[in-house]
Write a structure and sequence with these properties.
Blueprint: H1 11-14, H2 20-26, H3 57-65, E1 69-72, E2 75-76, E3 80-82, E4 89-90, H4 92-103, E5 112-115, H5 121-126, E6 132-133, H6 141-144, E7 147-156, E8 158-163, E9 179-183, H7 187-195, E10 200-204, H8 207-215, E11 221-225, H9 226-235, E12 240-243, E13 250-257, H10 261-276, H11 279-285
Parallel strand pairs: 1-5, 1-6, 9-10, 9-11
Antiparallel strand pairs: 2-3, 3-4, 7-13, 8-11, 8-12
Helix pairs in contact: 4-11
């Protein structure tokens, strides 16, 4: 049974792109401002000159067309978010994608981003819709059967986002009988389904819809990786909070077409170099770091052999 719908003050700050015009109209004094990376404060990445990777069919096709096509999310504050007015993508994952494009010899400004839902990532890589994917993409054994992974470039953990006035949910053991929202096909969705079967799961294609439903009292919690939830909570601090400790380890990787080991190894090398020269931390500080959470140490890269 749902509680009566109440529209909180911060609702306008987190509504999805479809409600962008409404957000402009219904904001009022005291609502949290829209936060996010400032374009003029983003790092500049040096482009590798004379780079070539002919052993990678993916890289060769991109070179022929003149730009990379990178899959990502479009609704994750500080990680990967699309401005509905300009179509511009911003966030930590977006910066990782641009940074790596420079290492592959492509100017970051030429990257073309394509929003891909969680359930469609493997298909997009398999059918050539995108060259690689950077968007809170957890590396696991089942996915490695379908796609390749460079990295990881970040280590997250699954957590819970609730309304600020919620007093009974402190961790996943408190979810019995409560409506919990996550992205269809995502690792967090499957973990709740398997480990906490008494929770009432609700699935949507994007987390922004889950957050909208949380703010309007249609669900009791949103679950996904803490990095994603921190971004939403920072955008509406008077209405949302992250509770409990992370209850998983989620290594984020760069998804590549299965079998393109040359591209995977090149991305591993690029990532290691960018971590070493400080570009990785600069990308974090300019994006996800705006939430107030300091940059962690990057996880060790798992350079597994070609199959």
């Amino acid at each position: 049974m749902f509680r009566a719908t109440r529209v909180p003050r911060a609702l306008c700050a987190v509504l999805s792109a479809a409600l962008a015009l409404l957000a402009a109209a219904c904001g009022k004094e005291g609502s949290p401002p829209a936060k996010g990376p400032a374009a003029d404060e983003l790092p500049v990445y040096q482009v590798a000159r004379g780079f070539g990777l002919p052993a990678s069919s993916t890289w060769s096709r991109a070179r022929k067309r003149g730009h990379l096509v990178v899959g990502t999310k479009e609704d994750q504050p500080y990680l990967a978010e699309k401005d509905p007015a300009t179509g511009t993508y911003s966030g930590f994952d977006v910066e990782i994608a641009r940074m790596l494009s420079a290492s592959l010899g492509f100017p970051p400004k030429t990257v073309r981003f394509r929003a891909i839902a969680s359930a469609n990532r493997e298909t997009a890589l398999q059918n050539g819709q995108i060259d690689y994917y950077v968007g809170t993409y957890t590396i696991n054994a089942n996915r490695r059967k379908l796609v390749g992974f460079a990295g990881p470039y970040y280590l997250a953990g699954q957590s819970l986002l609730v309304r600020k006035d919620e007093k009974d949910i402190h961790g996943p053991r408190d979810l019995a009988g409560r409506r919990v929202c996550s992205a269809a096909g995502s690792t967090p969705y499957r973990r709740i389904q398997t480990d906490y079967p008494k929770a009432v799961l609700v699935a949507y294609d994007t987390y922004s819809i889950c957050v909208d439903n949380l703010l309007t009292y249609q669900v009791d919690a949103v679950t996904t990786d803490d990095a994603i939830l921190i971004g939403y909570a920072a955008k509406a601090p008077d209405e949302l909070k992250v509770v409990g400790r992370p209850f998983s380890r989620e290594p984020y990787g760069i998804g590549v077409p299965h079998g393109d080991a040359a591209l995977r190894f090149a991305l591993d090398d690029a990532l290691r170099a960018r971590e070493g020269d400080g570009d990785w931390k600069k990308a974090y500080d300019a994006t996800l770091g705006l939430s107030g959470v300091p940059a962690p140490h990057p996880p060790a890269i798992d350079r597994y052999p070609a199959s």
